[in-house]
Give the backbone structure.
Amino acid sequence: MTELLRVDTRADLQAALKSLDSSVPKRSEGRRAEHTERFCIAHLLATLPHAYISFPLVVLHEDKPYFVLSMPSCSIGIEHTEAVAENVARAQFLREKGHGPDAYFAPHAVPGEARKTMTELLEEIERDEAGDGWVGDSGELWSKAMAHYAERKIAKAASFRRYEKNWLLIYDNWFLPGLRIGTAAVRLSVRLSRLSVFDVFDTVFVLSDATLCEFSPDPFIHKIIDPKAAG
């Protein structure tokens, strides 16, 4: 267990988040899970409403769950996962290494799809075919993807240490065009309830480029606050 932050006031928290290294390098430049974990916890703490956090605050980085917020009001365990298609992530690594054209057709992905070989990925990148058109509603596809990663964490929940409150933080790197986050969030809320996610996690957060979606179980959408610019 590692102490990540120890702060006494909100001003201290803002200053600590600004100085915290929460950068995320490219996949081809040594990105590790620790990078995305710190990025997510920094943005979560910067964006959460003031009422969610009490001081003094200690943020611990551990495993199962990945983070613990220790506060006078309560202790919160935060499990973290990244929603990203493995084949898409591996293809992005190859593109960053110089394979394929600079501009390319956005790949389709299905949660839980089979892992492709390196040869298959390289052939697809070089062919750069459009493939089948995007069919269906982006909000429906997004909700299925996010629910898939939440369900995976439920299956591992027996090994988690439990706290007074338990949160799940999903880092959304699942590309979909034309996503309307409001409609998508409502659909995801329904899926999470059907999967009994809230029997394990009191609250689920989905962190995207511009929004932090909160589910407990009804959805609420927060506009992301950049921890480097907060205050």
In short: Residues 101 and 203 are 41 Å apart (CA to CA). The longest strand covers residues 75-83. DSSP finds six helices and eight strands in the chain. The mean pLDDT is 94.
